[in-house]
Design a protein that fits this description.
- This protein has 17 helices and 12 strands.
- It is α+β, with helices and mostly antiparallel strands and about 500 residues long.
- It folds into 2 domains: about 10-35 and about 75-290; about 295-490, Sulfite Oxidase, Chain A, domain 2 (Alpha-Beta Complex), CATH 3.90.420.
- The strands form 3 sheets. Strands 4-3-12-7-8 form a 5-stranded mixed β-sheet.
- The two termini are about 45 Å apart.
- The chain binds the ligand Nc1nc2c(c(=O)[nH]1)N[C@H]1C(S)=C(S)[C@@H](COP(=O)(O)O)O[C@H]1N2 and molybdenum atom.
- Ligand MTE binds near residues 401, 447, 462, 464 and 465.
């Protein structure tokens, strides 16, 4: 086979795309981090045990006032974060949208690397690459340029660095990213343990991001050291001998365009968040929905795994009626279940218990990034469905909650919490209406007297303080019509499998 060109077209194109995608993944990833700017090595995120904290505020599990994890969110600048200023929902949308294209680009690149024979320039085939790379670095440190490997486009240090980025760092980011998805770790709990748990995966993912940043900084510095016009000629026009001023002009215009597109998309997301949510949702939602459909929860942690402290999200209801009910142990609480059903009912807690009882120890994944393991006991939702018999046209089960966010959350939010859950999730294993937690009655802050559990979904779907349940064939007339309170007010995705 003839030697492939040193800078073939596919390297030029995928390199340019990567500049755009990595910038997007980095910025949107930073947005995700801003919603819970703390990193842990152990699941449960024990308060005070973070190994890194990018926030001045520290909360303790022993705080007197109940505090919620939305209070831990930081507002970061849109220059760095995409789209910035506390928009986790859209940050995740941009991240997941970009992942589609970044992975597709990677597949095309790696396929062409191997089918074109380009791999010989990229994949070291001898251990001598290590001493040679050390020698090359030594040469750089003497302010000289090391020689290229014979007949190849790169010196040993470059070859090793590029190999590491393509075949170690990028796959590690993909693998650690997947280990944070509730549907993946709900179905394959062992997978997250490869990274030391979800928090380990989150920390590895962050360190991988830093490695990418480090690589980009060094790589850019090297372009300058090697001679920017020459390097641009190679990566823009494919050859050192190409017209260098032309290459610099095209390359510079390309970089400016990438910057302008980032600015444009950021401004769009900030000014028209609902349009951005919908537009991005077209691409992201099928992917999220597929994961939720493919995987059911098979979690079976042991009592030893239960987290010592379980974070809270959402302040409990503050109305006197709730406080009165709580004071007498919810004795006269009744759960109305209606909508498009054959047999509407209204059940007391004792009547609910008689429908069936299950206990499970599972991993709770908040969209913000923390997790916690707890034991939940209650009624399998399938039993409730057997009783009320939803009609065939039903698409969602809607859980209405007692907490009015306008009274507790601020930030311009208003209205009662609710979440609509696709009907296929309700008959899944480990889908519960929980009445107990860790062997005792459900505590007020965790949703007493009744909260939902969907163990492959993000936490925000698991409505607490459930007031009523309705089966519907259309969610567009409920709340702001986005399928849930967090979707309405925080632009979260409607499906919550990743
Ligand atoms: N009614 C109601 N349910 C809710 C919320 C809320 O604010 N109100 N927050 C949700 C979110 S974002 C999460 S992560 C979980 C947190 O459950 P926990 O407080 O028991 O840990 O509850 C979910 N259910
Ligand atoms: Mo959450």
């Amino acid at each position: 086979m003839p030697q492939p060109p040193h800078f073939p077209w596919f390297v030029i194109v995928t390199h340019a795309l990567n500049i755009f995608f990595l910038l997007m993944l980095g910025r949107s990833g930073i947005e995700v981090l801003s919603s819970f700017p703390k990193l842990y090595w152990s699941d449960g995120c024990p308060p005070g045990r973070e190994w890194a904290r990018f926030s001045k505020r520290a909360y303790g599990g022993d705080s007197r006032r109940p505090w919620i994890t939305l209070d831990e969110e930081e507002s970061w600048n849109p220059v760095v974060a995409m789209p910035g200023r506390k928009n986790l929902g859209l940050g995740r949308h941009w991240h997941f949208l970009t992942i589609h294209f970044w992975i597709a680009t990677g597949i095309v690149y790696v396929t062409l690397v191997f089918t074109s024979g380009y791999w010989v320039y990229l994949v070291p085939t001898s251990w001598s690459i290590f001493p040679n790379a050390v020698e090359a670095i030594g040469t750089y440190l003497q302010f000289e340029l090391p020689a290229k490997l014979p007949g190849e486009p790169f010196n040993a240090a470059q070859k090793l660095a590029y190999f590491g980025v393509v075949f170690v760092l990028a796959p590690l980011q993909i693998a650690s990213g997947a280990a944070m998805s509730p549907s993946v770790i709900g179905r394959f709990p062992w997978y997250a343990t490869l990274f030391g748990g979800k928090q380990g995966a989150r920390s590895v993912h962050f360190l991988g991001m830093l490695a990418f940043v480090g690589f980009v900084v060094l790589h850019t510095a090297m372009v300058v050291i090697h001679g920017l016009p020459k390097e641009f000629a190679k990566i823009v026009l494919g050859s050192e001998e190409a017209n260098r001023p032309l290459a610099v002009a095209i390359g510079t215009i390309g970089l400016v365009l990438i910057g302008l597109v980032h600015v444009g998309l950021t401004v769009f997301a900030r000014l028209r968040p609902r349009s951005a949510q919908h537009l991005l949702g077209y691409v992201v939602a099928p992917f999220e929905g597929l994961l939720s459909r493919m995987f059911t929860s098979h979690q079976n942690y042991s009592r030893r795994d239960i987290s010592g402290y379980h974070r809270v999200n959402g302040y409990p209801p503050v109305d006197p009626e709730y406080e009165r009910m709580a004071a007498d142990g919810f004795r006269d609480y009744r759960l109305p279940v209606g909508g498009l059903v054959e047999n509407p009912v209204s059940l007391s807690l004792d009547e609910l218990r008689e429908l069936g009882w299950e206990t499970q120890i599972t991993n709770h994944n908040c969209i913000q990034g923390w997790n916690s393991i707890a034991e939940w006991s209650g009624v399998p939702i399938g039993r409730l469905l057997d009783l009320v018999k939803p009609k065939p046209e039903v698409t969602h089960m809607v859980l209405y909650s007692m907490d009015d966010k306008g009274l507790t959350e601020g930030e311009g939010r208003y209205g009662h919490f609710y979440e609509a859950v696709p009907i296929f999730l309700t008959r899944r294993t480990q889908s519960l209406l929980a009445l107990e937690m860790n062997g005792g009655p459900l505590p007020i802050e965790h949703g007493a007297p009744l909260r939902a559990r969907f163990e492959t979904q993000l936490g925000f779907k698991m409505a607490k303080w459930v007031k009523a349940i309705e089966f519907v064939d259309d969610v567009s007339t409920i709340g702001m019509g986005q399928g849930g309170y967090r979707e309405d007010q925080l632009y979260y995705a409607n499906s919550a499998g990743i």
